[in-house]
Request: fold
Amino acid sequence: MAISSLLAVGGIAAVLKSITNPASPSATSGSSEFPRVKVAQLSALQVGQPVAFNYPLDDEPNILVKLGVKASGGIGPDGDVVAFSSICQHLGCIYAFQTAGSSPACNSSYKADRPVGYCCCHGSVYDFTNAASVISGPSPRPQPQVKLEIDNSGDIYAVGMGPPTIFGHETGSNDVSADLQGGTPVG
Ligand code: FES
Reply:
């Protein structure tokens, strides 16, 4: 192979490596490379009524909700506002939020005993009061939690993602820098 061809191959490999293995040690800790975008206003939130927004890429759904009970990672004066990726960690369906005492449309025999995410594809249930940990069903891991901040006016911002990575982004990894690959960040 000619030297010029070898250089071309090497250049392509370097580009591919930079895409698939970005050198971004700070990204694993959270917010420094994630966009900071307003996603809600505290005064507009009603307990148990979720708000949908896309983050960190412009086509990736998340759900934000004021639970009415203090929650792990919750923000706001009551520590009860949380947000999670809506893409189920089992096989990538979009799950829905259920208030305590409610049943999903797909399973009237199930009644939530706390605020949960319920995936109608295969029945995974995520505890929204406890960092979306798995209560039951086939999901192998919790839902990624959106890192939120609130300012003095009550504006709520998404500023990063906690592990694990969003389904479809090196699924099962804790390197959240992968969440920023493969699409266009919001902003
Ligand atoms: S995709 Fe959600 S439980 Fe299977």
